[in-house]
Specification:
By secondary structure, this protein is of the alpha+beta class. It folds into three domains: about 110 residues, Rossmann fold (3-Layer(aba) Sandwich); about 140 residues, ATP-grasp fold, B domain (D-amino Acid Aminotransferase, Chain A, domain 1, 2-Layer Sandwich), CATH 3.30.470.20; about 55 residues, no CATH class. The protein is built from nine helices and 14 strands. The protein has a six-stranded antiparallel sheet. The chain has a four-stranded parallel sheet with strand order 3-2-1-4, with helices on both faces. The protein has a four-stranded antiparallel sheet with strand order 5-8-6-7. α1 links the parallel β1 and β2. The radius of gyration is 19 Å and the shape is globular. It starts with a strand and ends with a strand. The model has no long low-confidence stretch (mean pLDDT about 90).
């Protein structure tokens, strides 16, 4: 009997950016995530893996690869690949609604998703909606405002960023609240912007897992972020940098309960301070830190997804080994 086929679609490397590939560092992160997931799924020996790949980006070994040339009709190739698969695992930027549209498309083609459903993606794509959703259930999160809002005066630095931005893309620092709002209101770009007081503490992230509104925290990761000319840049991630503790586990569980359809591997950007954890945003998809999970857990991080998909249950998550792996992300 043939093994079930899983379509991994990483959008940056998968032919979805025919107009032009992103800068080398971002492309490198996309390939790293894709290749780590391919390796993990193949190593389970339980599934076959297929994927689309941009002709400019070689496919990893061991997969059923569909090459997408610049003049190919990507839409038709994607739809065919989805219908020929038994399940689909999406990795794509939330920016401009890309990830949400792909998830709706897979649903319309009647194939199960091993990654988040459109409902969770729609909330997490918007930093404003994420704040509203998490604040309502008591998850500690940074106050988030839209351009038309008038928050009370405050001291300290402020951050402006696209409401649907991905990672550090478009994130800017300002000395004051008034400077941030003046910049945001003076823009001619129609893309929605959100503004936040800059949260104190150390930038971290959670690598987490969700299914049926239950959440599991796998690793707490240190983010190496620098600010150059008031713009933020992620230079690297120390995966499993510290033991997170019960408070962090509780936050992940509450996030999973607050976002219906949050499923599989996802990430949470947080700040760690003496006062505890503050959530910055939720990434409703596998993140760069996934590439370090195999080395920091006792088991294959793809196995729980297959167990829940095929068997509907899970005995336990892979345990944490206590080791740390550094992933370089900058230029």
């Amino acid at each position: 009997m043939a093994l079930p086929k899983i379509l991994i679609h990483e959008h940056v490397t998968g032919g979805g950016m025919q107009a032009g590939l992103p800068p080398t560092p971002l492309l490198g992160e996309a390939r790293r995530m894709r290749d780590a997931l391919v390796r993990d799924l193949i190593d389970t020996a339980r599934v076959r893996v297929s994927l689309l790949h941009d002709a400019r980006v070689p496919a990893p070994p061991g997969v059923d690869a569909i090459c997408v040339a610049r003049d190919d009709a990507w839409d038709a190739l994607f739809d065919t690949a989805v219908t020929e698969a038994d399940a689909v695992w999406l990795i794509a930027p939330e920016t401009d609604g890309v990830l949400e549209r792909l998830a709706h498309r897979v649903r319309a083609l009647n194939r199960p998703l091993l990654s988040s459903e459109p409902e969770a993606i729609a909330i997490a794509t918007s930093k404003w909606r994420t704040f509203q959703t998490l604040d309502a259930v008591g998850v500690p999160t940074v106050p988030t405002f839209r351009t038309a809002d008038t928050p009370r005066p405050s001291s300290g630095e402020w951050i402006a960023k696209p409401d649907d931005g991905c990672g550090c893309e478009g994130v800017m620092r300002f000395d004051t609240r008034d400077a941030a709002f003046a910049w945001a209101r003076g823009r001619h770009d129609s893309r929605p912007i959100v503004l936040q007081p800059r949260a104190a503490g150390e930038p971290m992230s959670f690598s987490a897992f969700a299914w049926n509104r239950r959440g599991w925290l796998l690793t707490a990761n240190r983010q190496r972020i620098t600010v150059r000319d008031d713009r933020f840049q992620l230079d690297g991630v120390d995966v499993n940098a510290m033991a997170p503790g019960d408070a962090a586990c509780s936050i992940v569980h509450r996030i999973a309960g607050a976002l219906p359809g949050l499923k599989g591997h996802f990430g949470v950007d947080v700040m760690r301070s003496p006062d505890g954890w503050t959530v910055i945003e939720v990434n409703p998809r596998l993140t760069t830190s996934y590439a370090g999970l195999r080395s920091t857990l006792t088991g294959n991080p793809a196995e729980p997804v297959l167990n829940l998909w095929r068997d509907g249950g899970i005995d336990a998550m892979p345990a944490n080994t206590g080791s740390t792996v550094t992933i370089q992300c900058g230029p």
